[in-house]
Amino acid sequence: MEHLYTQSRISSLPTYSIGCRTGYYSTTPSSAVSKKVLHVACIGHGTVGGAFLDQLTAQRQALYSEESLDIRIVAIASSHALLLDPKGIGADWRRRKAETPYSSDPVGSLIDYQRTHRLPNMVVVDNTASAQIAARYPELVRAGCHLISSNKIANTHPLAQYRALRQLLETHRRHYLYETNVGAGLPLIDHLHLLHTSGDQITAIRGLFSGSLGYLFSTDDLIQALPRAIHEGYTEPDPRLDLSGMDVARKLLILAREVGLSVELEDIEVQSLVPPHLRNCSVEAFLEKLPDVAAYIREMVQPAEGEVLRYVGELTTEGKPRLRCGLKSVPAESSLGQVEGADSCFEIYTRSYGVTPFVIRGAGAGAEVTARGVFGDLLRLSTRL
Ligand SMILES: NC(=O)c1ccc[n+]([C@@H]2O[C@H](COP(=O)([O-])OP(=O)(O)OC[C@H]3O[C@@H](n4cnc5c(N)ncnc54)[C@H](OP(=O)(O)O)[C@@H]3O)[C@@H](O)[C@H]2O)c1
Q1: Over the stretch 256-313, which tens digit does the pLDDT of each residue have?
Q2: Residue 319: which pLDDT band, with cuts at 50, 70 and 90?
Q3: Would you give the end-to-end CA distance of the chain in angstroms?
Q4: Ligand 1 centroid vs 363 CA: distance in angstroms?
Q5: Which of 14, 109, 156, 184 has its CA 20 to 30 A from that of 270?
Q6: Is the beta carbon of 79 within 6 A of some atom in ligand 1?
Q7: Bridge partners of 161?
């Protein structure tokens, strides 16, 4: 798609001023509706980040003319380069990024730029899985940035650090949205947050949080399914990261905190599917022993009559809160039992919903849906600015 920043088109856009603090720009003629300007800096342009940039550049013109939203991508950072252009970066971002020279600290340069120029309505979108980037959120907030993140690391930090970030966001009146941290593009976190803040009590959450484990257990033949899941890219390069249950535990932790529980990762009972003797060996040695893994899993739980095995993340809040992740036998006809392939499914029980949970089910991973969820966060944020 043709982008909006060519010289020939620039005159049709609102006057641009770096010094403007309001984030609104008058258009000419004065009768035209004023546009809300958002400046967007994207950190990470891999699978999710690349899809997000493509979606955003494709939709930008429609948002400008139909929603009065002027979204300007002003920076794109990877681990070794920062493309920075306050006039905006368009659909040719890949070519421009490839031509950007090496930088030893791209995100540091972005923060320096924002500290100096204070672009209004500056939104930093973190589409990395980097702990280093999550550790820089406080600097970004102090520089005046709102945060959107598919990276879940900051939300799994120890509680003191988790709370300090929220305090800082409040002090600086910045927003932080992370709908894609659990269930990718599925509308889960924002809805849970709304229920919690509206005073409903979430009594239980039960779900299939992991696409790779879902894929594994939606077939009867584990011995065949395990190498196939690895081969088809459903697991991490080291499948133990999925099989350990820790990814499910981190997602459960994020939801638990979202509904007001003061819990740490260590509070979660996690059943690992990795046999103890294969937990510390090399990836290569582990991959040679997949039949051992399948045998170990088969011995853990046998499905009851009319039931199927699922790796379930579960929290209950009545009495003492309890959080666990593990293999369970569930009725084949239940919502969790019916899920196939790598889809995710979440049952949410609340006081108001009673014994009938509301259920969210669909693709819980994948670049396009995750990027769409990140885009949704950006639009949600635009309504708050
Ligand atoms: N894929 C999914 O279905 C899915 C679903 C939900 C959530 N997520 C989350 O989305 C995030 C991105 O996943 P992905 O699959 O897109 O990862 P990816 O393809 O590996 O891309 C990661 C990107 O982050 C950049 N990056 C890494 N470290 C960086 C640093 N220190 N500074 C700046 N940039 C850095 C990488 O740049 P270089 O190439 O230069 O290192 C790359 O552009 C992850 O947090 C993941 O958990 C993914």
Answers
A1: 999 999 999 999 999 999 999 999 999 999 989 988 998 999 899 888 999 999 999 9
A2: confident
A3: 28
A4: 19
A5: 184
A6: yes
A7: none
Residues 350 and 199 sit within 8 Å (Cβ to Cβ):
no
Distance CA 342, CA 234 (A): 8
Q: Starting at the edge strand that comes first in sequence, how are the strands of the sheet with 358-363 ordered? A: 268-270, 322-331, 307-316, 202-208, 343-350, 358-363
Say how many Å lie between the CA of residue 51 and the centre of ligand 1. Answer: 11
**Strand pairing category for 122-126 and 202-208:** unpaired
- Whether 77 lines ligand 1, by a CB cut-off of 6 Å, is yes
Token pair of 140, please?
A: 């970004």
Virtual torsion, Cα 57, 63, 68, 69, nearest 10 deg: -40
CA 33, 38, 39: angle at the middle one, nearest 5? 140
**So which residues are the catalytic ones?**
251
Longest dimension (CA), the chain: 73
Q: How far is the CA of 98 from the centre of ligand 1 (A)?
A: 17
The pair of three-digit structure tokens given for residue 294, joined into one six-digit string: 């399948």
d(CA 61, CA 38): 14
CA 34 to chain centre: 32
